[in-house]
Design goal:
There is one protein chain. The chain is mainly beta and 367 residues long. The chain has one domain: Methylamine Dehydrogenase, Chain H (7 Propeller). It has no helices and 27 strands. Strands 2-3-4-5 form a four-stranded antiparallel beta sheet, with no helix packed on it. A four-stranded antiparallel beta sheet has the order 6-7-8-9, with no helix packed on it. It is globular. One of its GO terms (molecular function) is structural molecule activity. Its main location: nucleus. Keywords: Cell cycle, Cell division, Kinetochore, Lysosome, Mitosis, mRNA transport, Nuclear pore complex, Nucleus, Protein transport, Repeat, Translocation, Transport, WD repeat.
């Protein structure tokens, strides 16, 4: 897998009337959702011929929709969105037959989360082993954790915790690891550009003793605005792996400090001190890195830049990360994003590791 011929690229024409901000694949890679400044969300499904068909489009918020994300299919076909209008919304799919006996996919608004007093910049569902939980982050630096007490009733959500990060938040990532029943962990990135001092990535972990989320680490070496953070699955590793998209691509290892010395670590995981190590700085994009996606085993990473370049990374047996593939999509100059309504060459890029076994798939959506 060392040449772009191994990878698949498709271009789809959408009828979004403004900039597409986010694209998200479901767990199986056979569905994806898009959201846009036109306040709409679209859902696309893969048909029997391997073609993508738009099956739903609806208006969601009263402002630009910035992020869309899928819940684990164990909880049904459920989406969450967040917006400039300071809210996050929960949507559930209903499949019905109309009067012409044709199948329609209708997405029903189940709940609106309105606690934020500023723009909600990101929204992510928790890993399935934590139940139906949802995290949001806002421009004012607040991370909120919500939970649906009854998985069969998505109209009821309660805010479990609220964490003040004291700096504008732009992205969040749950740690998907279930290794040794590790406590829930979230990485938070900041796009604050007012100051070059101070870290832009925070690691939060739930402390069972105090029954609250605490900040266990701040990555001080990243002082540029952060566009994306992503924890890797680690089914066999004794440490956590975190990728950070900023001016460059950074990869970190986060290891509990007491693991090697505590013989009862399996059942007494009470330490929240970690050793953070930067294992790679990858400047190959030569521009802002905006999107990240790991493969299912956490051994391969895909990164996307504002120039439309997509790179595939893998560590060798020495732990050195190397670029092993690339794709280039069509995209306008980063200096001209405001001209989108008149510039059809601007695209949004989605990354799907599950659908294409040989590498990765690039989906470009044009207005």
């Amino acid at each position: 897998m060392d040449s772009t011929k191994d990878y698949l690229a498709k271009k789809l024409n959408s009828d979004h009337q403004d900039l597409i901000h986010d694209i998200s694949f479901d767990l199986f890679g056979k569905r994806f959702a898009t959201c846009s400044s036109d306040q709409c969300v679209q859902v696309w499904d893969l048909d029997e011929n391997g073609d993508w068909q738009k099956t739903a489009c609806w208006k969601t918020h009263s402002g630009s929709v910035w992020k869309v994300t899928w819940a684990h299919p164990q909880f049904g076909q459920v989406l969450a969105t967040c917006s400039f209008d300071k809210t996050a919304c929960i949507w559930e799919e209903r499949v019905v037959e109309n009067a012409s006996n044709k199948v329609e996919h209708i997405w029903v608004n189940k709940a609106n989360l309105v606690d934020s007093r500023s723009f909600v910049k990101d929204v992510k569902f928790a890993p399935k082993h934590l139940g139906l939980q949802l995290a949001t982050c806002s421009e004012k630096g607040v991370v909120r954790i919500y939970e649906a007490p009854d998985e069969m009733n998505l109209t009821q959500w309660s805010m479990q915790d609220q964490v003040e990060c004291k700096i504008s938040c732009s992205c969040i990532s749950w740690n998907p690891s279930t290794y040794r029943y590790h406590s829930p962990m979230i990485a938070v990135g900041s796009d604050d550009s007012n100051s070059s001092s101070g870290g832009k990535v925070f690691i939060l972990q739930y402390n069972d003793t105090v029954r609250d989320w605490i900040k266990i680490s701040t990555i001080m070496i990243i002082t540029d605005p952060v566009s994306d953070v992503s924890f890797a699955p680690n089914p066999a590793l004794k440490y956590h792996r975190l990728a950070v998209a900023s001016k460059d691509l950074h990869i970190f290892h986060l290891k509990p400090m007491n693991e090697d010395n505590d013989p009862n670590y399996d059942i007494q995981n009470t330490s929240y001190e970690h050793n953070l190590q930067e294992v790679a700085v990858l400047p190959d994009h030569r521009c802002e890195v905006t999107g990240l996606s790991w493969n299912e085993t956490g051994t391969g990473l895909i990164s996307a830049g504002v120039d439309g370049q997509i790179f595939l990374w893998k560590a060798n047996y020495l732990g050195i990360w190397k670029k092993i593939g690339s794709l280039k999509g069509e995209i306008a100059s980063p200096a001209e994003p405001q001209t989108f309504p008149q510039n059809n060459s601007l695209t949004a890029v989605a990354i799907n590791n599950r659908y294409t076994a040989r590498g990765f798939q690039q989906i470009q959506l044009k207005r």
